[in-house]
Amino acid sequence: MSPTDGSPTRSPPVDPDTVAAPEFLPDPTLSRAEMESLQRELAATATFADDHAIEPAAVAIDEPADLTDGLPPARANASDADSRIDPDRPAGPDPNAPVVVGVDQAFLTPEDGADRAVSAAVAVRDGVVTEYASATTPLSIPYIPGLLAFREGEPVLAALDALDAEPDLLVCDGSGRIHFREAGIATHVGVLLDVPSVGVAKSLLCGDPDESTEERPEGWRTPVRADDSVETAAARSAADSDDAPVIGHAFQSRQYPNSRRVNPLYVSPGHRVSAETTVGLTDALCAGYKLPEPTRLADASADAAKRERD
DNA sequence: GCGACAG
DNA sequence: ATCTTGTCGC
Fold first, then answer.
1. 3-state DSSP call for residue A18?
2. Which listed residue, of A103, A174, A188, A304, carries a Cα 20 to 30 Å from A267's Cα?
3. What is the largest CA-CA distance in chain A?
4. Residue A163 CA to B2 C1' — how many Å?
């Protein structure tokens, strides 16, 4: 992009050199058919099995962040200097703990006709926020079920680009393997960056839960299997619907004792994580609220960033 | 043609 | 996702 050619300059939302698989960038100018075929190639590249890199216990969060008085400040790693300066000061995060990054978007009110997304990425290590990053990105296409990554992919990547920390695990808002072509936004971003990722959705895009999801107690879970809308080979070749592959789980992360109003989460592997471990990771990352802490923090961060920028 | 559909 | 205060229930 030459500064002398008179064309409007705009820094690219993502530097292709920083992504592991630039051929999978979610280009929103592709045709619908091209988007779908890109997702098929993406799913073939994705790994829905454990990487041996992240274990739920290593990322467990015990205390939920108090958001009543704004976002908690980002903190530096624990070091010997901390205790020398002030022995009473709470220790910073364990520098050896994995970095979990939650990402979420908020949307600016379309004043003209141009929709823009404010995306936030929050790095959490050892249960402590270590960094916040956000980015404002133009949205090229409307929301289309099954093609969410082509609307929100660039915003997510832009926020991750602005983050200094290197994620060991990505927690995305939306599905991963629970997707018509097993390539939801969590899978898309995970493969693109070749980082372990999980998808956490508040509603079900496709698939069939083994059991009814009504009135379930906290901690309850049931497999979600591929249904007819999932066009994957393994999904199509299943003899009975009972043998259809498990593409994710419905997981009740929170519930009230004498009420039945909270709906379950729908969690699925993004990349380099199994369906089983995805539930374990989500469970470990929840600290009393329905959403995993990284997602809850990213949610609040995106809202805060939105207010500042409009 | 009808239904179903993450954010 | 977003437009939005109070309010019913634990």
1. helix
2. A304
3. 68
4. 46
Three-state secondary structure call for residue A51: coil
| Numbered residues of the known binding site of A | 104, 173
Tracing tokens 């609040």 back to the chain, one arrives at A300
Which bin fits A277, alpha (ψ -120 to 50), beta or left (φ > 0)? alpha
- Measured CA to C1', what is the nucleotide nearest A178? B6
Taking a C-beta distance cutoff of 8 angstroms, is the pair A227, A244 a contact?
Answer: yes
Mean pLDDT per 10-residue section of chain A, whose length is 310 residues: 38 71 96 97 97 93 92 79 55 86 93 88 97 96 97 97 97 98 98 98 96 91 95 76 91 84 94 98 96 97 89
Please report, in range form, the residues annotated as the binding site of A for Mg(2+).
Answer: 104, 173
Phi, psi at residue A44, to the nearest 5°? -70, -25
Is the Cβ–Cβ distance between A289 and A296 less than 8 Å? yes
- Enter the CATH code of domain A30-63+97-308: 3.30.2170.10
Q: Give the domain ranges of chain A.
A: 30-63+97-308
Q: Which residues contact A170 (CB under 8 A, 6 or more apart)?
A: A101, A103, A160, A186, A189, A190, A193, A195, A196, A197, A198, A270
A256: which 2 tokens? Answer: 């009230």
pLDDT of residue A225: 95
Protein residues bordering strand C (Cβ below 7 A): A 105-107, 109, 173, 202, 256-259, 303, 306
The answer to whether A245 touches A223, Cβ cutoff 8 Å, is: no
